[in-house]
Amino acid sequence: MLPGWAFALLGLVVLVTGHRFAVAGMPVTTKLMDPHMEITLRRLPQPGDAERADAIVADARRLVAQYANVADAERDGYTKFLPNIELPQEHFTKAGFAREAWFGTFDSTHPTSLIYDRDASGLHIVGVMYTASNLATEAELDRRVPMSIGTWHRHVNFCWAPASVPMRDAYFGAHPKFGFDGSISTRAACDAENGSFSPIEFGWMIHVWPNAPTQAAIWSIHGDDEQHDMVGEHMHHHDGESVVATASAVLPIPLDHLPSATIASGDPNHGARVFAQNCASCHGASGRAGPDAPQLAGQGLAAGQVAFMVRNPGTIDVSSDMPHLAISDGDLADVAAYVSQLK
């Protein structure tokens, strides 16, 4: 079944704008968590990040206590999306706070949505959601919530079902084709089903689960210690099932989002020897099938991108185990030249 936290964003867009709102690529460095979700990369910690994050969690914790009763949330203007459909997880959204966030104001006491889990005894509040416009820059997202701690996400590759397909069948079936959990994730496949494709749907979102047991769970997307959104694993959906591609098979960031460093031309023959001594133990011989690190061969990496990864592993993925290699600029240029020509 489609997660309630995701599908509820349909209501948010209607409340905020009265129509669908999709914006093309913005200057935020991201990677795919799965075919329908794009997430921000962790930044390196900066002074004050922990204190800012703790203040947001404290406000979220007070809100969770204040709105434990759904009736109190509704009295204060929060309304449930899809009121006639029960979801395992419900978002109660306040239109005024959604507009406030969309147009640039961040107030941790004004969450766009309150999140409730449903069980046999009713609804139980578990977290809050803050939002931002797709127009927000990476610096703006970081000003709202420190990106060394929190992970923003947004929905991508969304296929809207044609009007002739009932909503329950289109989005809520056991193996849906459409929507946030659908098997369709390309424009061509969407067109083939007479759907309407949106490459980026809605704005940026971040969840806070203030009473979760660990820091990682408090700031996770789904409310648990979901390490896969931090270590470069991608989730691929096929016929309703999920398959994890290990970090050794993929780069921790899409190639077109990977920065490039200025690097001199190098000698790939000498670079092969430097690579064998310093890199092959993790990335595999000739950059293939590394046991604990991304495969480098055949990725289309430019020399400058290789150099950037070597010098800045934590910038690409803060959970990376890659050490800072103490190699000279000359050796780095040679390694970069070698890796960039691996097929």
Number of structurally distinct domains: 2
Radius of gyration: 22 Å
Overall average pLDDT: 82
For the largest beta-sheet, the strand count, sense and barrel status come to:
8 strands, antiparallel
Outline type: globular
Report strand order across the widest sheet.
1-2-7-8-6-5-4-3
Helix content: 25-40%
The share of residues in extended strands comes to 15-25%
Distance between the termini: 41 Å
Number of strands: 10
- The count of helical stretches stands at 14
Taken in chain order, the helices and strands follow as: HHEEHHEEHEEHEHHEHEEHHHHH
Any low-confidence stretches, pLDDT <50, length ≥5?
1-26, 227-248
By helix and strand content, what is the structural category? alpha+beta
Short structural summary:
With 343 residues, the chain is α+β, with helices and mostly antiparallel strands.
